[in-house]
Pyrimidine-nucleoside phosphorylase (Pontibacillus halophilus JSM 076056 = DSM 19796), 430 residues
Amino acid sequence: MRMIDLIHKKKHNQELSEAEIKFFVENYTSGNIPDYQVSAFAMAIYFQGMSDQETTTLTQSMVDSGDTIDLSDIEGIVVDKHSTGGVGDKVSLIITPLIASLGIPVAKMSGRGLGHTGGTIDKLEAIDGFKIELTREEFTNNANEYKVALAGQSGNLVPADKKLYALRDVTDTVDSLPLIASSIMSKKIASGSDAIVLDVKVGSGAFMKTVEEATALAEIMTSIGNNLGRKTVAVLTNMNQPLGREIGNANEVREAVEVLSGKGEQDITEVSMVIASHMAVLGGAYSNEEEARKALDAKIASGEALEKFKQFVEIQGGNFDSIYEKQASHVVEVKAKEDGALVSVDSEQIGLAAMKLGAGRSTKEDEIDYSVGISMHHKIGARVTKNDTLFTLYMNDSSLQADVEETLHNSYRISETYEGEYEYVYKIIK
């Protein structure tokens, strides 16, 4: 078997066999196929696509390229959740203790962020003492006894994806749907969960800018998950403005606590509850989402969801009260320049402003400042008057103020009227 033959077949839109895809993954991972041939192969996939069967086989082959996590010692159906990434996305911080409060085990492997703000691990590390490196015994014990365990990704998970993604990044083939889907799902499958809910973000602050693009990606990913024996549901959620009010690591942890206390903004609360409802059904606790939603609402109303979050922090070594001690040294208000209705927001620009403050990373080597961030005070459709505060900046380097303010002023548009209706959840794909 030769790599050039696989390139030729895919160039002419012919379907690759299981043996051919396995040959590619195994030999590229081991260094037997040069980058220039894989670059041509990735570009052929970009233009010709892959069938459901090809994409499923590619995903499983990438899973098989490295270690996998065995969660069979954890009692019950283990449910995981993945977000394709957005601005102000603290949903994992909310749904992890919320689902655990129902008695459904959440054993989650999470990563750090590269971009707007930190990933789930970075947000949790804003809590003093929080330990993200757990032994196998600690991870299993926490999941069984407390129904919640979260650790950083470790080991040699999906090395084929790491190698292929690096090449896609420099050959402009990142936005190939089969390659995106297999990249995401290979990591989820290797992480060992029994069921997966995918939060596919759509809009200005997301990788997928339109509902049509997001639907196509979600359909491929759910097909892969279900084909590989994981019950998989995708929820398409709106990222045309930051989710919730806070952007930044300690800020977002504090907002997650507000949601778990029943005091969260409507958008972050609704998105979290829809995703959690589907997780509860996949976890076998309820027969439909309506029953699950009622149970979840009750857990928040009774205070059990918040207590589970505090317990989660405690068992992983964290000091819950420390999240209120992470305060930046400079607080600046960014005010509206005119009267009118807030008609659009560029979430990506707001995320970029937060990254400039130090809330995210532009390179893997950058260190995150957990205390900096941005509060957004008005949502799309709100009426504002000149000099109303649109954003509050929390910064430790005042020299960044002018640049960040300019970025924020370029991130929104005010007009006379707003006649649209902002949807939080677009659709569910199973």
